[in-house]
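Supplementary Methods S3. Input chains for the assembly prediction are listed below.
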Amino acid sequence: MSAAPPAIKSQPQYRGLTWDASGQAHLLLLAARDDALLASLLGALPSAPIRVIDCADALAAFSAPAALEVTRAASLETALGLLDDALARASMGLRLYLAGPEDAIWQAHTIAAAYGMGRREIRLCQTGSLARPVFCVHCRSMTRHVRTNIVPCAGCGRALFVRDHFSRRLGAYMGFQIDAEAPGQVPPAETVYP
Amino acid sequence: MNIRFRDETFRGDYSYRNSDATVRRFPFPFGLDEYMYSVNIERHNGGPAGSVYEFAFDIDEHYVAECRDRAITLERDPGRCVSLPHMIDAEWDVLELIMTSLAHDYPDHFGLQCDGARWTWTNRPLGIEQAFVFGDAATLPCPPFEYITRQTQGDFVIMDQRDGDLWADAGMITSQADWSMSFDTGMSFKEWHGPVPRAHEIGVFDRALKYLLMLQLGQPVRRLNWTMTVNPRLDTAPETYPEWGPDRASVRLDNVPDKVHLRVELQALFRLPRSNGVLFSIRCYLASVGDLARYPRWAKRLHRVLRDLPQDLAEYKGLVRYRPTVLEWLSRLDDGAPVAPGTHPE
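Predicted structure tokens for the full assembly:
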């Protein structure tokens, strides 16, 4: 996959997911259905144990190989709880793979970071919706599943412009009040993250 | 050297003013008639007596008022000072560097006595006398980095060096040109500078990072950066943009000289001894267009730089709304005659 480099360097660039052969165990979180991605992953399975947490019925079209330990979760929240439990019991050498919309994969990333997992141990793949999590720099609330370039803040209600500047620690893009210089002059929002 | 500290404000009635001597030593950043990003780094181991480059941390007539303004900002938003847990060694490094520098460079105003780990810090302008044990945070009223940067002009970021990168893992940021420490905490060098236009494409951050990773103890470096601010306001953070954003729409031809300020950052970088981190100090200087226009060289040069500044840089610096008005005011002072290279006022 090749895409134009982002205008703002903090914006994550995702490539397709592949297994990391150096992993001694693998944990895959699926938060969106992407048959092509799964076909490529299942077609090149590594030998080390693989655990899958699936909250998007992503494996529906596949008969998962017996080597995979698959847990289906009814919601992202449940899946994140399962991920937390799994990481609490994990040992060194685990590789984590996160596939889904940015809201899901970066919430999972935050959990993994709290267990000390570094950038080299986690692979992320944006798939499904392009919707963004947005952090309001004024009131510090998170507005999730944002599909438009301008969105009302879930916390303070200000009309936020969604900037491409991304924080891995917060797992979100920056939002700031678009009409701060001329209050009331809010351009119409456009759907840009379908 | 005895500095007379001004009683003034950076908000509300904006009573901030520069004395004639302070205007004269203003770090005017434009040595040529046009501006573009570059790795304009030079050694920061002293400069001409009385200049802003003379000492590691410049203290001037605005010191007390700036510390007061920082306290107000922190009271309203404690999140402006952040430090990730692994930064505690670097915090002590910074406290030591600032205390020893200020006590050495401004003995009339600051003092430091060290008896092993038992230190006594004296800050006369702020009326502070503090005995503490170096390395024992419980003996200070707040964590060491916050403690000392509450008493120093300028913003500070401590970058942790690991994996061939510099990470913005601590910061005291209350006088910034529209960037958010609470959002940027933990970012890599290039992520943190992500929003800056053009500079990435011309390789500025690649080269700067390579250079800074090799920065040596005792050999600090510096550069200047600049933007403009309407009203002499230190707190132009994204967090408070709804408060100061409307000011940008208040510029008129008659208020340009008093209202519009050139904002120059003297940025210095110091390797830290125990943590191997890098301290990044961002010392902000504000001068009104009217102050600067007293020197014809500066008036002409500022006019030409602003006039020819590419639109994307003007947008990034937030100048678009009032640039035409400032240009109209400055154009009357520019006869088009050549101005010899250099940043000096006369």
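Chain B has a mean pLDDT of 96. Chain B has one domain: 22-331.
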